[in-house]
Amino acid sequence: MVVLNLAKGAVRRFALVILVLGLVCAEDPYRFFDWTVSYGDIYPLGVKQRGILINGLFPGPNIYAVTNDNLIINVKNNLPEPFLLSWSGLQNRKNSYQDGVSGTTCAIPPGKNYTYKLQAKDQIGSFYYFPSTAFHKAAGGFGAIKILSRPRIPVPFPPPAADYSILIGDWYKTDHEKLKSILDNGRRLTSPDGILINGRGSNAVFTIEQGKTIRLRVSNVGLQNSLNFRIQGHTMKLIEVEGIHTIQTTYDSLDIHVGQSYSVLVTGNKAPQDYYIAVSTRFSEKAMTATAILKYKNSARKVSGPIPAGPNPGIDWSLNQARSIRNNGTASGPRPNPQGSYPYWNIPISRTITLESSAAQVGGKQRYAINSISYKPADTPLKLADYYKIPGVFRVGSMPDNPTRKPMTLDTAVLGADYRAFIEIIFQNHEDIIQSYHINGYYFRIVGMDKGVWSKNSRKQYNMVDAVSRYTTQVYPKSWTAALVALDNVGMWNVRSEFWARQYLGQQFYMRVFTNSNSTRDEYLIPPNALKSNVPAIFILGDSTADVGTNNFLPHSGNRANFPYNGIDFPQSIPTGRFSNGLNSADFLGANFASGGSGILDITGQSNVSITKPGKGQSPSDYLNKNHKNVIPLGEQIRQFSSVRRKLIAIKGRKAAMKYISESLYFLSIGSNDIFGYFHSQSSIPKSEFLSSLIFAYQKHLKSLLNLGAKKFGIISVPPIGCCPSQRAFNETGGGCLEELNQHSEDFHVMLGALLNNLSSECKDMKYSLGNAFEMTINIIKNPTPFNFTEVKAPCCGDGESFCIPHAKLCPNRHEYLFWDLFHPTETASELAAVTLFSGPPSFVYPINFAQLAEV
Fold first, then answer.
1. How far apart are alpha carbons 388 and 100 in whole angstroms?
2. Hey, what CATH topology would domain 27-148 get?
3. pLDDT digit string (tens) for 394-422?
């Protein structure tokens, strides 16, 4: 009997199923986007290149929204490698899961899709999106985001006649994968080859009507260069910086540093002809300029005259301009109240953090760092590791508050910070290049910047009246920039250099803004699609840890759980046959053949059978009375899979079916019942001989699966079964774990690891992950607090000697218990196990985790 988890008649794709609802305000409108990401030919600088297209477009489609709109963006990845989009400037309030960077979100596998659920909560202004994975940003995939004010909220300027988004940035003619390879080999990139304006090196056109005013939203989406933006014969009135209305100052040109966005008004008060829009590099060794056209309606003359010159090359002009940009305190923001109503000048600073960049060789390769820590990406998104309390992925505090000036080291750097703290961040730049820093999830007030080294006396020059807030700030060469930040957004947030090669080689870290509160008022629940995997199906074989009701269909089976209180937390509180209060680990996976009470040996779990020393040429399975099935042993489960395989071939054809089977994952969780049976049978077979026969039988089963076309195996070994509540009763010294039984589990794990290593050497196509259930469980038992468990010895249902049956003693706080009954984990523990297997470190799942296994 094949039982499909949470679905009928079909094999589900692998996706972690968490029964939660996304939290967005029901009254706010929804906007839906359906995007396909692919490679295509582009010619931005006049030569053919491979670019990243979204719905066939380069740059990608614009996003138009209104404050508080819910944005549902389904992204299909047709690239041959994983891909993510991030949303520069969108705060993703209470929802860093959707931030689209490697520390928060699983990358979208090739051929798969991911649906982002964003909300423009209390935001207006000009932003953009871009690809955050690998070095994809150098291939395109970026586009503009425009968030308009709600109709009832006044804006401090008349409606413009037109509203244009302009994406500027430096660009390489070299393919992005070659650029990535240069960086991976520890070398620096040369200067970019040119500048793009909306994906073109020249000839982009923006139309204006004489006497009318238009709005230009200009974002620097480039890789490293600060750019100056100007229009021949015209001035620009600055009205908004990254979602903040500014005092309306008029400029001839604007320095827009990489990652920044500005919004200006331009009035058509000149003769009706064409005029240059010029964009040129600033503070760079290689001077580059690109042009576009401001075209008057009914223009009588083509563009003429010299391209307008940029400002002085030194930093003084740019520094003074940056200081002149001020917050418009009387204007409404996304809400009716004025932007100046937040009294930041009265809030005590609780902490000062100084961030200092550096460049060095580590192991003979170029790296970049902040406070001497060069960021090393983890295999598991940090936010997911934090949520599921997966140890070994990162350490809070690995990013120090101040420069250490020690030799550069690599680490998965995370800065710990308290929710609702008000902090001061000093960006100190001792290098000869201009820097640009971004903080995801946050605006920060730029209260000061100057040449030299920051000191406490520097606070005397802070702007404590109308400092502008933004999400990206420049730091001039040999200079500092000071920012004040109210930490009002719980989550894991990326702090990075916008100089993309430096970011890629380590100049970034994550800031963990934390609260002990579990309220959705402070942080939304993890989205149901947080974990993704690139396998067509997962087939599950095993015992009661994975059984979802198979034994219900065995008329003589006594190993059932189809009665209360089992299933009390399952939808509609249905006792489905799972040995759990709700879901078990298999429910987070796929198609299920598991049978409670079964084992590797055919004899395990059958009635009236004991293990004795077999005769010559016999195995313990030869003693099975095949007419009296109490459970479905592993061998029979494999025969059931073989039947499914035949049906797949009939439906899909042999070639397609075998591809499906070879790319699928085979999850096996079995062995505990074999060891239980042996240990308590007082068998005359020595332990070593029994375990060897068990491993031999396991090998035969795995080879059977290999012969059927299976290639990828996710195998979980036996947990410390001597710590089950049922076994603690056998410990005469006071209810501790039965260590002799635990030793059987440990020995089995070692032998199983050796078996898998040998098999994978024999079968070159075989790939595997081995979950160390012993270490995973012991880690919780020894230190339950970080995992929010308060009881790791007693069962939630029943007590240490009685089973979980109707009217048994039932704990009210089931999510705080490790064990559901005498043998099985709670739903909470099962979910933690599934996530650890999926994305845990080598100490718990080896040599690769399930997510990595899915990608090979």
1. 19
2. Immunoglobulin-like (2.60.40)
3. 999 999 999 999 999 999 999 999 999 99
Structure-block tokens of residue 75: 């992204």
Kindly report which listed range (453-467, 487-501, 569-583) carries the lowest average pLDDT score: 569-583
The per-residue pLDDT for 814 is 92
Domain ranges of the chain: 27-148, 155-341, 351-514, 538-606+627-726+737-781+828-855
Evaluate whether 732 touches 812 at the Cβ level (below 8 Å). no
The domain made up of 155-341 is a member of CATH 2.40.50.90: no
Q: For domain 538-606+627-726+737-781+828-855, give the fold.
A: Rossmann fold (3.40.50)
- pLDDT of amino acid 847: 94
Report the CATH superfamily, name and number, of domain 351-514: Cupredoxins -  blue copper proteins (2.60.40.420)
Backbone φ, ψ for residue 669 (5° rounding): -130, 95
DSSP-derived letter for residue 632 is: -
**Are the beta carbons of 844 and 775 closer than 8 angstroms?**
yes
Closest CA to 674 of 779, 845, 802, 542: 542
Residue with tokens 């920012």: 483
Q: Please, are residues 506 and 368 in contact by the beta-carbon 8 Å criterion?
A: yes
pLDDT of 52 strictly over 60: yes
- 279: its two tokens: 């964009």
Check for a shared fold between 155-341 and 351-514.
Answer: yes
Lookup result for tokens 């059978």: 609
DSSP class of residue 399 equals S
Q: How far apart are the C-alpha atoms of 31 and 28, rounded to whole Å?
A: 10
pLDDT tens-digit map of 9-41: 222 333 332 222 233 333 578 999 999 999 999
